[in-house]
Request: fold
Amino acid sequence: MTMKSLNVLSAAVLCFSLSGCVVGAVADLAATTVVTAGKVVVKGTGAVVRAAIPDGDDEKEKKKKAKKEQQREPDAVYEPVSDETPAAY
Reply:
């Protein structure tokens, strides 16, 4: 085989092998687009439904917040043990 025919053969093999990657990438892009669009639609629909049909979420959140405040421990107060600096420093 001559060098020119070897180059042409190499280029052809390379093109055919990479075409499978291109097809895979396009299919992945299409699937990702569909999934993302579906998520956006579901989130938008959920927001509209929550806005149209209030179910007392605000009251639940207020109760949770009040309960959490009651359970919270008071902040620690810093009180130095002594004014002396340790000898290691």
Notes: The radius of gyration is 33 Å. The chain has a mean pLDDT of 76. The chain has two helices and no strands. The helical segments are 3-52, 57-71.
